[in-house]
Amino acid sequence: MRGRHAGLIVSALLSIASVVLFITPGLNLGLDFRGGIIVETHSPAAEDPAHMREVLKAGHINAASVQSFGSPQDVRIAINLPPGGEDEHVTQKLVDQVRTVIVQAVPGVQIQRADAVGGSVSSELFRDGVLALLFSLGMILIYIWFRFEREFALSAVITLVLDLTKTIGFLVVTRFEFDLVMVAALLTILGYSTNDKVVVYDRIRENLRKYRTMPLRELLDLSINETLNRTLGTSMTVFLAALPLALFGGSTLTGFATVMLFGIVVGTSSSIFIAAPLLLLMGQKRLRKAG
Amino acid sequence: MLYYSRLRMLGVVGICLISALLCLPNFMKSPSSSLPWHQVHLGLDLRGGSYLLLQLDTKTLQHDRLQSLEGEIRQGLLSAHLGYRLIQRDDATASVLLTPRSESEKESDRKVLEELTPSIPGELAINEKDGRFVISLTPESIRARAREAVSRSIEIVRRRIDSTGAIDPSIAREGEDRIVLELPGISDPQRIKTLLGTTARMTFHLVSPDPLHAGPGTTMLPLPEGRGEIAVEDRVDVDGANLTDAAATMNEGQWVVELKFDNKGADDFARITTENVGKPFAIVLDGHILTSPVINGPITAGRGIITGRFTARSASDLALLLRAGALPAPLAVVEQRSIGPSLGAASIHAGVVSLVAGFVLVVLFMLLFYGRFGLYADIALFANLVMILAILSLFGATLTLPGMAGILLTLGMAVDANILINERIREEVRNGRKPLQALQAGFQRATGTIIDSNATAFLAHVMLFVFGTGPVRNFALTITIGIVTTLFTTLVLSRMLIVRWYAHKRPQELPV
Fold it and tell me: Which superkingdom, per the lineage (chain B) (predicted)?
């Protein structure tokens, strides 16, 4: 508990920095939330993105970005929705047009992926994603409140918010695309981190009953130490499980798994350095004297 | 604590064996067609294919209804020999405004309006405002119409997709006005998109006098239910576009389908039925004969009934199809996702490699850190994997790449319960307890913690399942199933393994 102020301050600073990053430059919104078109092609030989751009231009298509990704044969074409464009028809026509133009101009090309998301859908997906996050946080709050006491629930949720903001900051810095799968990653981190906090709190609650006179600070230290092996052990296994996904998961899952790995580290450290000190801060009056 | 009844052990082992059996269909062909043989379906991202989200244009739907309502009002006034100053449509308020010709005709006007036949019960609300009648569509009826229109569209979409020869398409309603279309194996959905953008046409033809042979001006068309083909005249006698309604009703104790035509349709129908009494004609939809009844007599009222061996169900189905002759309103594609087959194969590979690698890493970790108890945790972990697969198979659920990630993360989290138990036992041993008491205390204390920590994760993922869409739902599904199986494999299975081992060996020290 000695380092508690340092821990809290560092955490708060990191989270504030993340919020600033979230406002500007902001998340790199993926197709799900931004709307538009993504087409991924696989050419029989190495493909120069500049050539692909020429091909598209010849077909009167201006792509927002044409990049190599994965292997040199693979090209990813992204087109943003026309500004203010609620016109689903245009988006859908465009994706077929892109396909036709490329298939005609590049012999032997394979269209690996052709996604088109209209404006109304993308805003709904975003709303649903945010709702899922909020409701999850709410449910966790209610559950812990119900099973523990108010101090526990509040410090758990504050810790979770700190975890979440840092993960979002990580997303901004790494420029991973923020899409539905990322929302799933955030929620899993949330669930995992809560799990961690619950285990520590559970021990604190047990020790509160067991050691009637021990000062709160000492008691928290003891509880953290008693659960430390488990905290690290579980983090290790989840980390080991997510690691292959980050390495071999392919374009869909690499970002997801990398964020998961980050979240596991953040979630584990916050269980030790943030959640319990917060409880000390909040519970000093009600639970017991800090000593 | 040490005693496990034979029944209980059989139960636990039985559940594991049944799970293993349920997984079998994923790895081998069904030996007999009488066996239930459910397997996990691969998601579009793994097998390649297209996902289309279609949105029904409900504005057009409402507009069309207002238009026909306006016509009906005009017609009603005309046949009651009443005039009017103005009849207007207002799309924004979903209503038709009628300005009567004079104050004296108002009462008669109202009578005409009240006799209008609503196409949905409680459809029309008639009010008076500033000396005008406001005939508006009730919000409930607008919603009911949209719902019905989506059902009809799904039917039409299904017929259209089937005609393209697509394998295993899945068509489902989403929300109030959307349809989700999943087409495995079709990675270029351009043709489908075009097909759905076209409106189908229903036509009425006379059956050729020589129905078994195609002659000049006739075409062989298939009868319903594979009852062969008959020759039908090419000339369109009545166009389905002139149909205003079709409904299933009872007539002389039999289910029949009642048709209503507009003016042109009624005229055409009157002419053809007067000239061809006793002859069969054919109602053709998309090149298929829906039914070919015999004309019993002239039909001049613009209404007709189709008799046949209908049940309540088949009559209403036919009525639905007749009404649905053309799409009730345009369908727009608002979201498309297509995955090529090679990318799908690559994703399966990536998923399986990650799953195996992650599983092996976790298993090794547990063995290394917890020895014998780690081994038991690993056995439970394997059983866990089998059970997740079994449950997914049992319900014929879909597995996507994020779903595979969900399974992997579940496995990573599942050993948490074992770690909790093992650490607790270790602690109790360190506190000087005898092995048996340590085991007992370890299990007992860890159980509450395990349930608490899994409950929160469970809640979070149920939320994700409720609000998520597409691949995310699948992720949430596998994790939610995984949490349930984890509770079983750790709290019941691995506990039983440890306890049985202890009862058998009675070691003086625990290998923790």
Answer: Bacteria
Phi, psi of B468 (to 5 degrees): -75, 165
Q: B453, A188: Cβ pair inside 8 Å?
A: no
> B236 near B204, Cβ under 8 Å?
yes
Of B188, B335, B361, the CB nearest to A99: B188
Interatomic CA distance for residues B30 and A289, integer angstroms: 68
Burial class (CB in 10 A: 0-12, 13-18, 19+), B14: exposed
Q: How far is B407 from chain A (nearest CA, A)?
A: 10
Distance from CA of B406 to the nearest CA of A (A): 9
Smallest CA-to-CA distance from B135 within B83, B176, B100 is with B100
Contact A244 B353 (CB under 8 A): yes
Q: In Å, how far from its chain's centre is CA B292?
A: 32
- Do B256 and B307 contact (CB within 8 A), yes or no? yes
Q: Quick check: B334 and B53 in contact, CB under 8 A?
A: yes
pLDDT tens, chain B, 512 aa long: 667 788 888 999 999 999 999 998 888 887 777 778 888 888 888 889 999 999 888 887 888 788 778 878 888 888 888 888 888 888 888 899 999 888 888 888 888 888 887 877 888 888 888 888 999 999 898 888 888 889 888 888 887 677 566 788 899 998 888 999 999 988 888 877 876 765 545 678 888 888 888 776 677 888 877 788 888 887 777 877 677 787 888 888 888 888 888 888 888 888 888 888 888 888 876 667 877 878 888 877 888 777 666 788 767 666 655 665 567 777 888 899 999 988 888 888 998 999 999 999 999 999 999 999 999 999 999 999 999 999 999 988 889 888 988 898 888 888 888 999 989 898 888 888 888 889 888 888 889 888 888 888 888 888 888 877 777 788 889 999 999 999 999 989 988 998 889 888 888 888 76
Quote the ipTM score.
0.88
Q: How far is CA A133 from CA A161, B155, B242, B321, B472, in A?
A: 11, 36, 51, 43, 13
Contact check, Cβ <8 Å, B463/A132: yes
Q: Which one-letter DSSP state was computed for residue B489?
A: I
